[in-house]
Amino acid sequence: MLQGLTLLELVIYVLVWGAIGALPGFYMFAALNRNPRRGALIGGGVGALIGVGVALTGAIATAETALNAASVLWLAAAGMTAALAITRTGVGQYYQAATLPQKTADMAYGLLLPTFVIVSAIVIFPMVWNVALSFRPIRIRDLPNLRLFSLDGFTLDNYDRVFGIRDFNDTLLRTFFYTIEGTTLAIVVGLIAALVVKDSFRGRNIVRGFMLFPYIAPIVSVVLIWKMLFNAQFGLANELIDGLGGRRIDFLNTPGYAYPMIVLFQVWRYFPFAFLFILARIQAIPEDMYEAAKVDGAAPSQRLMYITLPQLRSVFGTLFLLRFIWTFNKFDDVYLLTGGAANTNLITIEIYDQLFSSRNVGAASAVAVVLAIVLLIVVGIYFRWFLAEER
Amino acid sequence: MDNTAHPAALTTDAASPRRSVFSSRETFETFVGRVIKWVLIAFFLVMTAFPFYWMLTLSIRDIGDVIQNPARMVPTVDQLRNFWQSYDEVLNRFNFLRYIRNSATISLITVCFTLLLAIPGAYAVTRIDFRLKGLMSWGILLVYMFPAIVIGIPLFVVYSQLGIRGSLPSMVIVYMSGTLPVALYMLRSYFQTLPAELEEAALIDGCNRISTIWRVVLPLSVPAVASVALYTFMIAWNEVLFAILFLTDSQANWTLPLALERLDTQEVPRTVLMAGSVIITVPVIGLFFFFERFLTRGLTAGAVKG
Lengths: 391, 306
What we know:
The structure holds 2 protein chains of 2 kinds.
Chain A: H1 7-31, H2 36-57, H3 63-87, H4 94-97, H5 100-133, H6 157-164, H7 168-197, H8 204-216, H9 219-229, H10 236-243, H11 258-283, H12 287-295, H13 300-329, H14 332-337, H15 347-356, H16 361-390
Chain B: H1 8-15, H2 25-60, H3 63-68, H4 77-81, H5 84-93, H6 96-127, H7 133-144, H8 148-162, H9 168-193, H10 196-204, H11 209-220, H12 222-238, H13 241-247, H14 256-263, H15 270-290, H16 292-300
C-alpha cells in the first residue's frame, strides 16, 4: 500500500480522519467537564494518527473498512466516556473556571458540530471532490475497486470528450434560454396571480390554496398528468384541436412543440412560488400609501404602476436569482417530461446520460463542473449588474 | 396613457349627479379591474385544479372508455361503482403497497434526523455569538443553492464503493443533503424573528442553554418546526432524482416516485398510472390543506423582509 500513496491521498486521509476523531473528542471532553475545544484537538490528532497509520500499513484499503473503523472508533470513545464518567476518573473542573464567552462558544460549537460535519460530508465535500473526479478516467465498472482519492491517470480527456459531444453548445445555450424564459414568465404569472387575490373576497383562501397545487404536488404525478393531457392519441388538448378541425400534434415528442411545452410546464409548476413571495410582499405595503395616492387622484392602474410595482422591485430581484439558480440545476422536470428528446436536451440531462448511458463517471463530473462554472459566471454577472443598479 | 395625477377626477365623481360606471377614471378602472379579476380567478382555478380533477376521473374510468371517449368530463355511475379497479391493480399487481411503505419510512426518518440536526444548528447560528458565526450563516445560504445532480455523482461513487448504494439508510443520508439546508435556512429565518429578551430572561433566571432551548425556544417555535417538518417530508416524499440515480437497480427498495416513473411504459394502462399518481399525490395535498397556514408562512419565511 505504501507505494503509490500520493501526497494528496495522505493529506485527505489526515483531514478526514482528523474530522472523524475531533467530533467524539469534543463531546467526550465536554462530558468529562474538561475543555471541549482541547478535546477536539486531541481527538483530531488521534484520528489523524490512526488515519495515517492505517493508510501506510494498508490495513484500510477500501471505503467499507474505513467506515467500519470509524464506527469502532466512535463506539470506543463513547464507551470510554461513559466508563470515565461513572468511575469519575479524569473528570475536570473546566466549567467552573471557564469564562462566559468561552462557555457560550463551546455551546455554539457543540450544537453546530454534528450539522456541520454532516453537511460537509454530504454537500460540500462531494461538490469539491467532483472537480477531482472530472480529471480522472473513471467508468462505472471501475467503481468497486477504485482508489478514491488518488490522482493516478490525471487526464483532460473528459473535457475533450464533453466539448466533443454533439450539440453540446446548443445544449448549454438551450439550458440558459430555457431558464431565463421560464423564470421570467413564472414570475410574471405569479405577479398576476398575486394581484388577483391580494384583496379579500369570498373563497379567497380556497383559490389561494389551489394556486399552490402545481408547486407542492409530486413532480412524477404532475408530469404524468401533463403527458396524459397532451397525449397524441387521447389527450384532451388533441381532442380540442380535433373539435376545432385541426391536425393532431404529439406535443411532447415533436421538435418545435416540445421546447415550448417544457417552458410552459415550468411556468405552470413554479408560478406559485413567485406568487407566494410576491403576495407576502404586497400585503406588507402600508395601506396609507394607497390612501394618499387616492386622495391625490391616482386611479387604480396608476396606483399599481407607481406604488405596487416599484415596491416589489427587490422581491423580483431575489426571486429571479433564486429561481434562475434552481431552474438551471433542475433535472427531474424535463427529464421526466421528454427525456431530453425532440430538441429539449438540457445540461443536467446530459450529466445523467454521461453517467448512465455512456457509463462514464469522469465525463459526467466534467459536465457537472461546466454546469457549476457557467452558473457561477451568470450569478456573478447578475450580482455585478444588480449592485450597479442599486448604486 | 395619461399618467399625470388628476385631482379633478375625485371632485367630478363626487359632484356628478348620476353615478355612471364611466363617470370617472377611478370608478371606470375599478369596474374593469373587477371584471378582469374574476375572469383571471376563473382562469387560474381551471389551470391549477383541472389537471388534478382530470387525474382523478381517469383513475376511476376504465381504459377502454378512455380510448373511446377521451373527452368524457364526468365519469358514469357505472364507472364510479367500479372506481377501485385501477387502484387494486396498482396496489396489488404492481406492488405499490410495498413502495408506499418504503417511501413513508424513508421520508419519516429523514424528517426526524433533519429536525434533530437542524434545530440546534440553526439556533447556534442565529443566537449564540462565536467567531465563525458569520461564516456559518453564509454557508447555510450557499449550501441551499448547490445543484443536487452535481452532488449526486460523487455520492454515487462513494456508495458504489461502500456497496451500500440502494439501501434505505443510505437514501436517508442522501435525502438529508436536500432537506438539511432547507430546514437550516427556514429555521434560521424563524429564530431571527423571535425576541431574544425571552431567552435572556430565562438565562438570567438560571436556565442553562439546553433547557432554555427546550423550555423557551422550542415551545415558541412549534409552528415553524411543524412547517419545516412538513416541508421536509414533502421534499423527501416527492424526491425522484436521487431515487433514479441510486435505487433503480434495487427494486425491493424503490420509493413511490421511482416506482411510478418506472411504471410509465407502453404496456401499463394509463388509468392504472393515474391511480398511482393519485396515491402519491393525496398524502401531500391532504397534509397541505390540513396545515396550509403553517406551510404558506414557512415557504416564504425570512425571504421577505420589510
